[in-house]
Amino acid sequence: MTIGIIGGGQLGMMIAESAKKKGYKTIALDPNPKCSASYVCDEIITGDFNNLDNLKKLGDKSDVLTYEFENIDALGLDFIVKNYNLPEGIKPLYISQNRLREKENAINCGLKPVPFKKVMNKNDLELAIKELGLPLVYKTTTLGYDGHGQYLIKSLKDLANIKYASEGIAEKYLDFDYECSIIMIRDKENIVHLPIGINKHKNGILDLTIVDKELPIFQKIIDSSYNFMIQADFYGILTIEYFVKGNEFYFNEMAPRPHNSGHYSIEGASSSQYDLLVDYLTNKPLVKPSLKYPTIMKNILSEDYDKLSLFKDKENIYIHDYHKLELKPRRKMAHITFTHMTYNTYLEKYNRIFEEK
Ligand code: ADP
Ligand code: MG
100 lies in a domain? Predict the structure, then answer.
């Protein structure tokens, strides 16, 4: 059995690692022959994701397909869905590709985002400020990731710096208590989810996921997220990011693929997000995963990449290097998982190792 992965980034690499462990072959399609997945997959098809011939080539060689990358032309994938086996379909991908569609769909399926308005130009943004008040966050509706294409507007002075996209949204800046995300996998029979972690961001990029104890609000988040998945008629893997403030939780965004906040599950859970996705793709029953021990995932960006080797061969510390050849500012290069640790022990340990000469 061969699993074809559209995209060969780190998520594709980790899907392939799990597939390999379970005895399946993998092929990824990526423009870069030396992409992260190339270190694990049996084959890489080098080429653009939006070229139908490349997708067909991948489809012809695979028994089942999945995507690890969101910015594929969802409508172009239509042909692939009709002619090959891509069980997740294109609906969740299409919806997640545009923040307006995504938030409207969330509302229609029972979730509550922070108040927002569509913004096409400066005039719309000024109206949004009148209606929603400050501070606001302006975001492009498409192609945003890791905080790209976002502006925090604290005062009218900040309007001068904004580069308007052809379509954007303005949403209320929420002074949340914390962020968390739920990763669910649904097949025809069942929905399962990974233990929920708390996400800490630095400059708009995920820095840490801390998975420790269940907070009382998590059960409400789980129930609403399962209900969302059913109402939206989504199958396969889906991540939902939330902002939590007091007893309220707000939908931020969703991703129909494995998620950075689920990397911890490779060591920290009885099955990882990748294992469960592979089980889904290969029609194996989905078994509810549990947390094995308190676990913390730390993202390593380009700026700290030279420190990665300091963390090698240490007890309860696991390095995942994405083998990216090019260091770009704030690029995710690797992650490190710390098991059996509370947040405070992690901090002490991380800082001590990081400062080693
Ligand atoms: P991306 O696609 O870049 O992940 P997000 O909308 O998730 O975009 O924004 C990235 C991060 O920026 C969030 O995880 C959160 O930390 C912060 N952020 C985004 N929108 C808001 C908001 N309305 N209020 C407060 N913080 C926000
Ligand atoms: Mg996000």
Answer: no
